Structures are given as structure tokens and as C-alpha cells.
């Protein structure tokens, strides 16, 4: 018979939640699930994303994307078979010849939007190369197809890519030749042995898919991750901080940041994750890296991100590390200026989320568009022109890829005293006959610095930038770039909604922007000619 002591003894405590699988390199901040209030707030967020934000594909759009994907896969399979046959391989080799398509980016992560490109990687056998077979033979095949428009090969990009539209669907197509004579249909893209005996561009191409797969494996709840990522991508575009190429963050960066928050709050619902996202990154001590898993050991000789070994890695301002070997910092383009802008946006949105959780604000307040052209008194205007639309597409892509360098050059030459805020959106004056595009950067002096009366002369910086851009290997007559300083009151009307300049803010409103650069607290000289002569020059090419 059991003793009374045994009968009244408390039951053993349940195993702690920490004993469950740990996601990420640290323990979670909280394993708490949603309260009833959280569930209600989450319902409101998901309703907003569906009914007002429109971040989901329709069934028709999703079906069309799948059909385009299948069509392109058949095209590359036929291409490899034709090459195999034309090079005299045996009938058995021709029969087995194969290429397969993997997706990455938003499509692979399950957050694709109709306006997003479908990012694809074609994996082919060792005897089908990138330079001639992909960027010449396959390119010509695509160019002859009436479904294909706006074909733009970029063989010299850091990750070589062919951009085009297939039946109106934007496509980014990469190629990787692996060390196999026959590519099996069930190829495991996560297998590190695929990285043997391939060059760096091939490793980068393969890792686009490998990283996407790893992200999905490293989050506790894929559905919650996807909803949160859809929300944050929409937010980043509304607030003007979605663009890796000009110095903010791109798709994989936002995915890794969201995934890390999912790891830190494994049982949270999307509304909680959105709120915690801004809380975490408002307090994050950059340049401490964001990582989803520990760095893998160097097995194959490829260099991974490691500031202990690589001095260049110690200069990165906002390291966001990809989770597949070799691990890289996907946000190398971030500068001091663009980091400042993003941290300010995190702080702004953190305050709104706190109000939402107290039922003092609605979700729509979080997604108010950033009023870029009302935020600064001084701007740099970068005008890009070309002889026709096709030339402009290639020329604009080249110039845009160098805009992050212009930000770094200005920071360098002004010792960080003049800060830049590049706008990711391009603008076009539809009233002009020439092929034209324009980008803008907001300029302000470093906050808290007393530089009364100082003039920022960045004419030499702009000349250096233009010189580097004009070294474009595929330059054609008519491709020109003009960089000029423009004050807010003189901004061209085509940058405003419907082409109309909004009424100027009151003097009282203007007085609440003491740190913006103006005639009173600093001048900017960005071109060698006066504004009037610059206007004549611009009129000359804009009306040609």
C-alpha cells in the first residue's frame, strides 16, 4: 500500500518547452502563443492583406505562372537534347540528356506576387556551358519565340542572368552546369557535392535555390512565415526600402530577417511576428550579423562570410547571412546612409505596432506610403537617356546597379557629413519623345552636426561616378547620363501623383524639420554648370 506522502506528492513538472527543437543559433526569446486579443488582431491583419493590400495571387495568375514554368522547363529540356545530338553523342546519351528547372526567391518561398519575377535556375550537364550554350544558343532560341519579349541577357552580372517576359510573365533565368553527364529528374539541390569542380558564378547560382530551401527548413511554422513575409515585403515597398541594388534590402534579405524573428518567437501568429519584427530590429546592434544557423566549415575551398578571417567582411554595415554553404552576406550594398533610413523606418513602424496592439491604431497606418519628395529640401536627380527603349533597358540596368556606389562615394568624400537617401522607384517623363528614366536621392546633412554655412561640393564625386558608369562595355551612341542637384521646389512635376505638385507645407510644418539640408544650413554643388545651363542641356536631350 502506498504511503500518504506518496499519495499527496505533486505530479512531476512538464518538460520545459526549451527541450523542444531549437530553431536558430540561440534559444527563443519567447515560446508564448497568442492570446485572444492577439488572435483578433491577427484576423484583422490577414483581412487587410487580402482585401486591401492585394498581396496574394489570384487562382488564374497562379495557374498561368505554373504553365509558364512548365513551358520553360520543356524549352530547356529540348535545348539540351538538341545540343547533345548536334555534338555527336550516342543515341542513349541523347535520350538521357536532361535539364531541370528549380525556382527560388518569392516563388519558391510561397510569397509570389503577380508583379514579381519568377526566378528560375536551369541545371544542365557538364558539357553544356553558360557562356556559349546558354547566353548564345538558348538566347537565340528564346529571341525567336513570339511569347518572349524584353529579352535582356546579363552574362557579366555577379550572378549571370537572362531577363525576359514570357507571355507577359517576368522571368529571371539563371544557369548552372554541374559535374554530371546526365542530370537526374530527382536531383537534390541541397547536396553539397554539386559544388565540386564548378566556378564561383555557378556556386552563386546554385545557392539561390539552396538558400531558399534552407530558409523553409529553418522556420518553425512555414505558413506563419509566409504570411509575415508577404506583409513585410508589402511594408518595405510602401516605405521605400525594398531594393538590394541601390543599397536597401532585397527579397532574400527580408526573408532571412523574417525567418530569424520566427525562430525567436516560434509559437507566435503573424500579427505578433510583424510587431516583434520591428521591436527586434529597432533594438538590433548592427553590425552584429543576422544568421539562421551556424556557419558551416569550409569543406570545398569556397570563402564564406567570416569577419574573423576576412577583413573586407568587417566593413559590412548590416550583415544578413545566407544559410547555405558557402554562407555569404546578402546585404553588402547597404551603406551608412541606407542603414540609417531603414533603422528610422523600423522605429517609426515599431511605434505604430505598439499602438495597434493597444487598439489605438489600425493596420492600415503601418502601410502608409513614405512621402519621399516631401522629406528633403535637396535632391540629386540622375537622368538616364538612350536612343530607344531596348537600349534604355540595358543602359538603365547598368546605371541602377552603380547607384549604391554613388552613395558610398558621397559618404566618403564628405566624411559622412552628407547623407543620401536613394529612392528605389524610377520615374519617367511621359511627355518626352526620347527614351528616358530618372532616379532621385534625398540629401541631408548628418543629424546633430553643426556645419552652419558649409558647402558640400560633390562635383568631383559626381564626375568620378559618371566616369565609372560610362565604362559600360556595351555602350551605344545615345546612351547618356546626367546628374544634377535640384531643390524640392524645382522638382519635375512627373515625380508627383497625376503629374501635379502638391501644395507646399506651411512654414510651421517646415520649421519641424531642422536637420534637413537647406540654403540656410549647407549648400550642395553637384554639377559643374549652373541650374540654368543645366536646364538648357536637359532640354536639348529631352526634346530630341
From TrEMBL:
The entry lists its GO molecular-function terms as:
ATP binding; metal ion binding; poly(A) RNA polymerase activity; RNA binding
Subcellular location, principal: nucleus
Any single Gene Ontology cellular-component annotation = nucleus
* One Pfam family cited in the UniProt record for this chain: PAP_NTPase
Q: Which UniProt keywords apply?
A: ATP-binding, Magnesium, Metal-binding, mRNA processing, Nucleotide-binding, Nucleotidyltransferase, Nucleus, Transferase
Return the annotated region ranges for Disordered.
Answer: 1-22, 501-544
Q: Cite the Poly(A) polymerase central domain residue spans from the record.
A: 224-368
Q: Where does ATP bind?
A: 104-106, 172, 233, 242, 251-252
Instruction: Read off the Gene3D superfamilies from this record.
Output: 1.10.1410.10, Beta Polymerase, domain 2 (3.30.460.10), Poly(A) polymerase predicted RNA binding domain (3.30.70.590)
Binding-site residues for Mg(2+), renumbered to this chain:
172
The cofactors required by this protein are: Mg(2+); Mn(2+)
An annotated GO BP: RNA 3'-end processing
Question: What EC number(s) has UniProt assigned to this enzyme?
Answer: 2.7.7.19
- Which branch of life, at top level? Eukaryota
Q: What is catalysed by this protein?
A: RNA(n) + ATP = RNA(n)-3'-adenine ribonucleotide + diphosphate
CDD domains named among the record's database cross-references: NT_PAP_TUTase
Subcellular location, record wording: Nucleus
Q: Does the keyword Nucleus apply?
A: yes
SUPFAM superfamilies in UniProt? Nucleotidyltransferase (SSF81301), PAP/Archaeal CCA-adding enzyme, C-terminal domain (SSF55003), PAP/OAS1 substrate-binding domain (SSF81631)
Report the cofactor remark. Binds 2 magnesium ions. Also active with manganese.
Domain Poly(A) polymerase RNA-binding: start-end pairs: 372-430
Residue ranges of domain Poly(A) polymerase nucleotidyltransferase in the record = 24-219
Q: What does this protein do?
A: Polymerase that creates the 3'-poly(A) tail of mRNA's.
The UniProt similarity line reads: Belongs to the poly(A) polymerase family.
Protein's recorded name:
Poly(A) polymerase
Species annotation: Prunus armeniaca
